[in-house]
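Q: Convert this sequence to structure tokens.
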Amino acid sequence: MATIAAQYTNFNIESASTVQKLIHRKDTGEEIQLDYKVITLAMLKQPIFKMGYCCEMRGTNYPIFLTINGKEKEFRIGNSGMYEFQPEVYMNINKSKEEKIAEPLVTKILVPAGINFVLDYYYSA
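A:
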């Protein structure tokens, strides 16, 4: 099975569908309705297991939303304007010495509309 790398930016999702989300702004603390562009599973081709998101500095005030294993979750962007995940090996030494792999599978991504970004991601084909 091959690993495929792909990329989206704010320029090539301009025609993507839009949804509104009620979010909490990091800079002002206020709750606002914000438009989000929807990057669907059809656009991603397959569930993704590794991702990097970089946005302009004003984008750090707005979360992104990832659908992981069927559940939508909000993720806050750090002050650097970057967020990333990849499979991680871990061990719960309180239960056993068996190593396990945490590998979230993302099937949908919501990014704030009007924010410049680059999204690099990987999937298996």
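The mean pLDDT is 93.
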